[in-house]
Amino acid sequence: xxxxxxxxxxxxxxxxxxxxxxxxxxxxxxxxxxxxxxxxxxxxxxxxxxxxxxxxxxxxxxxxxxxxxxxxxxxxxxxxxxxxxxxxxxxxxxxxxxxxxxxxxxxxxxxxxxxxxxxxxxxxxxxxxxxxxxxxxxxxxxxxxxxxxxxxxxxxxxxxxxxxxxxxxxxxxxxxxxxxxxxxxxxxxxxxxxxxxxxxxxxxxxxxxxxxxxxxxxxxxxxxxxxxxxxxxxxxxxxxxxxxxxxxxxxxxxxxxxxxxxxxxxxxxxxxxxxxxxxxxxxxxxxxxxxxxxxxxxxxxxxxxxxxxxxxxxxxxxxxxxxxxxxxxxxxxxxxxxxxxxxxxxxxxxxxxxxxxxxxxxxxxxxxxxxxxxxxxxxxxxxxxxxxxxxxxxxxxxxxxxxxxxxxxxxxxxxxxxxxxxxxxxxxxxxxxxxxxxxxxxxxxxxxxxxxxxxxxxxxxxxxxxxxxxxxxxxxxxxxxxxxxxx
Length: 487
Description:
- The chain has helices at residues 15-38, 54-69, 73-86, 93-106, 110-123, 128-143, 170-178, 232-241, 289-302, 324-334, 357-384, 397-400, 402-409, 436-442, 457-461; strands spanning 155-160, 183-187, 189-190, 217-218, 245-251, 265-270, 275-282, 307-311, 389-393, 423-427, 448-452, 470-473.
- The protein has 487 residues and is an alpha/beta fold.
- Helix 14 links the parallel strand 10 (423-427) and strand 11.
- It is globular.
- The two termini are 46 Å apart.
- Mean pLDDT is 78; it is low at 1-51, 146-152, 204-212 and 476-487.
C-alpha cells in the first residue's frame, strides 16, 4: 500500500498579500525585540495583544478571495476562518463569515457551509450578508443526505468489552433487548496494549495498564488492518434481527498495527531530555493518513454498523503532535515556526496550566487541525454510507475545566459545534448533573451520549436530555453478565 502524497503549489502574493506579510513580520520582530530587552516573562503574566490594523484584515480577506477565485478552497477557508476566529469584534465579521460559507460550499462541505449561513442569520440578522444566507439555507438543507432513523428517539445502550465480540450470541442479545436497551456498543479493534477507554471505565489520563502484549488487529473484514476474526458483520445482522443498533468503538490515534516503517507515527517532545521521540500513536497530520482512515472506516461501515464511537484514548497530550508535517503546517498557517523547547511543556507533568503564551496558539491550532482531519474522513465515508452516525468521546474536563481539556487532551467542546458530529460522548458523574442542561444547549447538535456506570442510573434519569440524546452504560463483567445489573 503506497500512500499518496499531496503536492502543494504556492502562487506569488499580490500587493495586499505582500502588505499582510510585511505587517505580520513587523509585529513578530517587534515581539522578539521586546522579549530580548524585557527579559523572561512570568508564565502568569498575560502577553499583550496588539490590535490589528484594518489593512491586515483587508489583506487577509483579499488573499482569501484570490485563493477562492483560483479554486484553492482549503486555503481560502483557512484565511476566512482566521478573520472569523482571530478578530471577533472586527466589523468585517459578517463579510468573512459569508465568504467562509461560500468557500465551504464550493469545497463540497455542505453541512459546514450550512452552519456558517445559519450563524449569519443568528449573529448578524440585520446585515446584507444574512439576507444572502436566508436564500441559501433552504437549498442546502435539501441537499443534505438523509440519515437513517434510529430505533428510538433516545439511545439506551450498553458497552460490551473487547472480548465480548467473540462470545456474544443470540441469547445474550435477547437479554440486552429485554433489559430495555436499543443499542450495543462494541470495541472492534485490538491493540498490542489496549488501555481501557473512558467508556470502559479507563483512566482520564489515558495511561496504559500493565499486562501482556496481544495480537493487534480488527474484528471485521478489511484490507487496511490485520483481521483477528471476521465477526462484526454477523453480530450486526443478529442484533438488527432483535431491533438492536450496533455501534463500533475504535480509537483513531491508537492503531499500533500500522507498520512503523511507513513513517506515519506521531512525534512526542520529551521535556526531560529536550528531544523529540517517535510515539506509538498515529500522526493525523501525515498526508497519507487521511486516505488510510477513509479506507479503514469505509470497510467498517460496510459491516452494517449503525454508528461509530471515536474513543478519546489515547489522548493527544501537550507533548504530542510535533511531527515534521504538523510543524511545517503550523508555520505555513501561522507564519512562524514552532519550537517545543520554548512552550514550557514540563508543566504537563504536574498537571499545571502555566504554559508559555505560544503554547496556547499551538494547542488551539493542533486541536482544530486534528478535528478537521477526523471530520473530513467521516464526511468522505458518509458519502457512500450516509446513514452512519458518528459520536466523539471527550474527557470530563471538557465540561469541568475547558482550558485543562484543551491543554491535556486537545479537546474544545464548544469548537465541536463547527463540525458534523452527531453525538458527544461524555463520561457522567454526579458533579456534572447541574451542568448538563446548559451543556446540552451549547452543543450544536444538541445530542449527548452520557457514559455512565449502572449504579448511576437514578442520577442519569434526573438529567433532562433533549430528544435524540441518550446514555451508554459501561460494562465491566463478562458477556453473560451484560444484563445482570437491573438495567
